[in-house]
Design brief:
The complex is a heterodimer of chains A (305) and B (283). By secondary structure, chain A is α/β, with parallel strands linked by helices. Chain A has two domains: 215 residues, Rossmann fold, CATH 3.40.50.300; 60 residues, Alpha-Beta Plaits (2-Layer Sandwich), CATH 3.30.70. In chain A, the strands form three sheets. Chain A has a six-stranded mixed beta sheet, with helices on both faces. Chain A starts with 5 loop residues before the first strand and ends with a helix. Chain B is mainly alpha-helical and 283 residues long. Chain B has one domain. Helices cover 77% and strands 0% of the residues of chain B. In chain B, helix 2 runs antiparallel to helix 4, helix 2 packs parallel to helix 6 and helix 4 packs antiparallel against helix 8. The two termini of chain B are 24 Å apart. The chains are: A alpha/beta (305), B mainly alpha (283). The interface between A and B is medium-sized, with 30 and 25 residues. Chain A: This is ABC transporter ATP-binding protein. Chain A: It holds the Pfam family ABC_tran. Chain A: It comes from Allosphingosinicella deserti. Chain A: Belongs to the ABC transporter superfamily.
């Protein structure tokens, strides 16, 4: 079995202040395999950025362990040379050009500058490479941030909100780039984003973090399948509900019922209803998207807290 | 480490602040020299005898009076504040910290700040020599006899060594302030206050010693200010700088003791900078 590229074990962070401590991250344990595109989702202030900063060595954890490529980060910070990152929307030296910024980074990395032109081309900044970053738009900085993240040809790419500030075409390009990093170049991608539609399209697996704790970790397919259902319009509705409840869970919703059954089970649902003499006016598959699932999970969690 | 140093050099060599705080010395001096030569050509000058060779040589190393001077140290503090605290202002530590050890990054900043400043002073020293010679030739002033390359090199060497301690201590003060405050302005203000307080204490010590003689006597020897003068005196005159505070034993340290104390200040304050940065959370 191959070692996970990234593994967080009971990771925690407490910010200590004069008025006591604030638990920003608590017992976060996740594991990301090689070649995966892993999404890290959560509402604002949930602890996403703190977690990302800890795994980049910017913040020291108060508890737990971070393993990168099977090695504890605490004992071997040099392992971060195999990691590329985009944090905070690409903060750069404003007085240097895009190209010079990448040269500075290449020297800091100890990497050659031979990939710079290709990367600038890849992120569509070749024409603006000699302009000072001070004059770049947010989207351009974001693109330069992605180029910077890929500069050292890393095995693990960590992207914090990579599509922030990009227009629709830019988002589409970023989506393709992220998928291509994993599919064509075998890189592992760990990304946080609040654009759930994008996450749904590019990620294999996600973790949802709320109030510093991971409250759900699953593949996109499993997460969405758990919320799959069939919306039934039938009469009499109460009778239909009692018939369906013998086999599946149901959620009454006005003059319809949401049957927790897969689309493959639709013929059996129909047979049972018809067998019980119930009139069926409609049976439509209903699949919630990631945004709805995310909202329902985080709202449930907030209500429980 | 060399790669981190190369990155620092690339980052700062052409920044406006570097032009105004570092490259200003050779450029400013060059312009001033050209101006003075032009003025000399326009104005009628009485014929003068050649100055003594020692005076002429000393004048070529005049730039080395700048870094130990309070205003020279202000400029050094300003450059150090910009180099060390700039990364916080631009939010760029996040960009580089994951890829290089924090110690190497801070060490590269120390090395770059020091070498840029010393490079500028040295270049200014060489320009002083060159422009002094050109000026005398163009204006027809006599160049004294007995000027040798060894004597010129020695003058530059003595000036450079004497300036070492105040430059290093000023950089160390400001670097620590930058890391602790994460602000260029705050680091600059603290650097200026530290330099001013340290220099002012030397002048005020005889007055202050009336109120707390032992404390002032102790502080006078503990703070680095006296030791800058003492090391300079040992280098220039071959004897200790003597200070006598009212009704107290005279102060006259040996050069190794002064060197050790200044070294302790540099290592101590720079060490605190390294430790603070290593333990710092970069949000």
């Amino acid at each position: 079995m191959t070692l996970p590229v990234l593994e967080l074990v009971d990771l925690g962070k407490v910010y200590r202040g004069r008025k006591g401590g604030v638990q920003a991250v608590k017992d976060v344990s996740i594991s990301v395999g090689a070649g995966e595109v892993y999404g890290f989702l959560g509402p604002n202030g949930a602890g996403k950025s703190t977690t990302i900063r800890m795994l980049l060595g910017l913040i020291s954890p108060s508890a737990g362990e971070i393993h990168l490529f099977g090695e504890p980060l605490r004992n071997n910070p040099a392992v971060l040379r195999r990691v590329g990152s985009l944090v905070d929307g690409g903060a750069f030296y404003p007085f240097l050009s895009g190209r010079k910024n990448l040269e500075v980074l290449a020297r800091t990395h100890g990497a050659g500058a031979d990939r710079i032109d290709a990367l600038l081309e890849q992120v569509g900044l070749s024409d603006s490479a000699k302009r000072r970053v001070k004059g770049y738009s947010t989207g351009m900085r974001q693109r330069l941030g992605v180029a910077a993240a890929l500069l050292g040809d890393p095995d693990l790419v960590i992207l914090d909100e990579p599509v922030n500030g990009l227009d629709a075409a830019g988002i589409q390009e970023m989506r393709l780039l992220i998928r291509s990093l994993a599919a064509d170049h075998g890189k592992t991608v760990f990304l946080s984003s609040h654009l759930l539609h994008e996450v749904q399209q590019v990620c294999d697996r996600i973790a949802i973090i709320s109030r510093g704790e991971v409250i759900r970790e699953a593949t996109i397919r499993d997460l969405l399948a758990a919320d799959e259902g069939l919306r039934l319009q039938a009469a009499p509705l109460e009778l239909a509900r009692s018939v369906i409840e013998e086999r599946w869970a149901v959620e009454p919703d006005g003059d319809t019922i949401l049957v927790r059954a897969t689309q493959d089970e639709a013929p059996e649902v129909v047979r049972r209803l018809v067998g019980a003499g119930i009139d069926i006016f409609g049976l439509t598959p209903e699949r919630r998207n990631l945004e709805e699932v995310f909202l329902s999970i985080t709202q449930e969690e907030a209500a429980d807290a | 480490m060399l790669e981190a140093f190369a990155a620092e050099t690339l980052k700062f060599r052409r920044h406006r602040a570097t032009w105004f705080l570092v490259w200003i010395y050779p450029i400013g001096f060059l312009l001033l020299s050209v101006l003075l030569i032009c003025v000399g050509l326009i104005q009628a000058r009485p014929e003068t005898a050649a100055p003594a060779a020692s005076k002429w040589i000393e004048s070529t190393a005049a730039i080395w009076y700048v870094p130990p001077h309070m205003f020279g140290r202000y400029l050094i503090a300003a450059f150090a504040a910009f180099v060390f605290a700039g990364e916080y202002g631009w939010n760029t530590w996040k960009l580089v910290v994951p890829h290089r050890s924090r110690s190497a990054l801070i060490a590269a900043k120390f090395a770059m700040t020091f070498l840029f400043l010393y490079g500028a002073f040295l270049l200014t020293g060489l320009l002083t020599l060159l422009m002094g010679w050109i000026g005398d030739v163009v204006l027809g002033s006599p160049i004294p006899e007995g000027i040798t390359a060894a004597a010129l090199a020695k003058a530059q060497y003595l000036g450079a060594v004497a300036a070492l301690a105040p430059v290093l201590v000023t950089i160390a003060y400001t670097s620590l302030a930058a890391v602790l405050t994460r602000s260029t302005i705050a680091a600059l203000v603290i650097g200026l206050v530290a330099v001013t307080a340290e220099q002012a204490f030397l002048g005020l010590a005889p007055i202050l010693s009336i109120y707390a003689p032992r404390l002032v006597w102790g502080l006078y020897q503990l703070l680095p200010g006296y030791h800058f003068d003492n090391l300079s005196s040992w280098l220039g005159q071959g004897s200790a700088s003597q200070t006598r505070l009212p009704e107290l034993e005279p102060i006259a340290w040996s050069w190794p003791a002064s060197l050790a104390l200044v070294g302790a200040w540099v290592v101590g304050v720079a060490g605190l900078t390294f430790v603070s940065f290593k333990r710092q959370d970069i949000n």
